[in-house]
Design a protein that fits this description.
single chain, 136 residues, alpha+beta, Aspartate Aminotransferase, domain 1, 3 helices, 5 strands, 20% strand, globular
Length: 136
């Protein structure tokens, strides 16, 4: 496993390993979403949080001046949760989960689902812009 300069496991390598371990449609979906996130915001920083014995691979997290979104995988879906999703415009209707909270919104993708790449990248940029506006 690759290490950062501080000796920690490299988050990008951890996410690579998670995608590889998933295989199948969940791995492909998470890899595609990750590529879109990186295209949308070249300054995004990858992290892995909430590592514990029950989930040693942790949860992939994409940050830019705060959490933009997390990428969780379940047996039946891949879930992208936007930390401040409730504050984001979603004219394409990508958010389809966690709709009643005051802060988060999520996109659940099931096997065979496709994501509107342009709308998804717009959402990623909007989330990063919101974090940047709050950081000032």
């Amino acid at each position: 496993m690759a290490k950062t300069d501080s000796g920690e496991d490299d988050p990008s390598a951890l996410i690579d390993a998670k995608i590889a371990s998933l295989g199948g449609w969940r791995g492909e979906t998470l890899a595609r979403l990750r590529a879109l996130i990186r295209q949308a915001d070249p300054d995004i920083v990858e992290a892995v949080k909430w590592r514990k014995p029950a989930n040693p691979a942790g949860v992939p997290v994409w940050e830019h001046a705060g959490i933009v979104c997390t990428g969780e995988t379940y047996k039946d879906k891949v879930k992208l949760t936007f930390a401040k999703g409730a504050a984001l415009a979603d004219p394409s209707g990508l958010f389809n989960a966690s709709l009643d909270g005051n802060a988060r919104r999520a996109i659940d993708l099931f096997e065979g689902d496709a994501v509107n790449a342009a709308a998804f990248k717009t959402l990623i940029r909007a989330a990063a812009d919101l974090n940047l506006s709050k950081a000032k």
